[in-house]
Structures
1.
Amino acid sequence: MARLAFRLATATVGIVLLSGYLAAARLIVEAFRVLWSVRPGTVELVALFAAAVLGSAYLSYRLGTARLLAVVDADPIPRARAPRLHRRLDALVDRMDVGRPTLYVADTRAPNAFAVGGSGGGAVVIDRSMFRLLSPPEIEAILAHELAHLETNDGLVAAVLDGLARTVVGVVALATLPALLALSGLARGSAWIRGRPGDRSGVFARLRRLAATGLVAGFVLATLLARARSRSREFAADDRAAAVTGDPLALARALRRIDRATEPAWPFAPLSTHRDTDSRIERWFSTHPPTDERIERLRQRAEAASTRRGREGWTGVPVR
């Protein structure tokens, strides 16, 4: 008798759960149907979608820039305090297609420099320790690298691509929400009806996990593509800095010094911005390519340039 009462109770709960989930799914479907009936034309819809993506990405980019400068507590570097540094920056700006950025200094807990903003100006933030760690030519090479990012608006492009990827994944998730709700109701409801409330091995539960895994996989894929582009832009910035300064080894030496001085757990680089790793997954998610690979490319560039000049000016000094 007690067993029959338990089965009746669990079946009742299962039916209520199933009805609730299916009703919620039906309500969302009806809401989508109403929205679809009053949708604008295809051209207008695409235009609105593009405007929303670009607008949100631009606002995120601008607000993120100001927030980042505030987080690192960056202070502007007056020309009177560092005239040679400013003269080096002026010379680089004259040779590149970029507006003159504002120079900032900050304590980022590790030797580092980064650019925020775009080609119209922007800002370059340098950690205080860099001035003790690097020589003037190496500082100049780092500045050229960061200016290369500003020159091609890498930050804005990355923000737009990230906004587009997130929007697409969000739209897909929203479109599949009724199906996920229905599968959740069927999975939980059928488990209760069978008298096994904790059972997650049913076909509906497996289908729900499969659908959720697909959404997560889409987000992960978008992240991997964004990180791959970020790594390629680092190589491009290295090449541009080497071309502008004419001294690839200065940047290579700077990267080596930064790599050796950077602590493994820097809060702004949780996935090895400058630190090499043997983990393939970490490399996939890293925003920067391995330092050794960057240095080797710069070394080869220097050797090729030296060969073209008949090895005139080649010092033979290794990157240490």
2.
Amino acid sequence: MNMINHIIISTYLITYLIIYILTHFPLDIIMYIKSNAIDYPNPPFRNSIETFLFVGSSISFWICVSIFPLLSLFFGMNLFTSQILEFININLQIITQILGGIILTIGLLIGCLGRIGRGLYLSKEKPTLAKTWGHSIVRHPSYFHYISGFIGLPLFTFNPIYLLFILGIPAYINVSISEDNALENEFGEDFRIYKKKVGLLLPKLKKKELD
């Protein structure tokens, strides 16, 4: 069971990585080429702790998603499911891992849609507010992607060690709020209207208009 589980986890994470690369890298190249022509508000971190948690959690996450699956598949290293939790009922483990997989998949989907929306923004001749694709679901789809990864990965791998990723969530929330302030200064009323309709990092439930 453990071997099959490791293969499933590793295969999923490698697929997860490939989808991310195919969606992000072409647009990242465009962003780099156009970086001098057009700039999206991106305020600095408030302090060194926030920088460390933000950058450290991001790099660690991608190490787990990219390098660990390969080591697990080709060298048989157990870098995922923990021996500590072997006493837990197998049905609970399966349910937990399915939930984690769903969270990871939703996060990846919204993150990829957000990158497409950012790419469309770069096609504009002047600065404009990105409000389509992933940005129509949450205001910061890329950050939603990372936060969902920090929550989904420990559940999907069934390893409590990966719960350390949760430490990076407050940094992502703080940076999201800082970027919101920069966007409001840049786009004013347009952003305030957008803010009322779309949630920061969680989708807003649409209210039915009263007659």
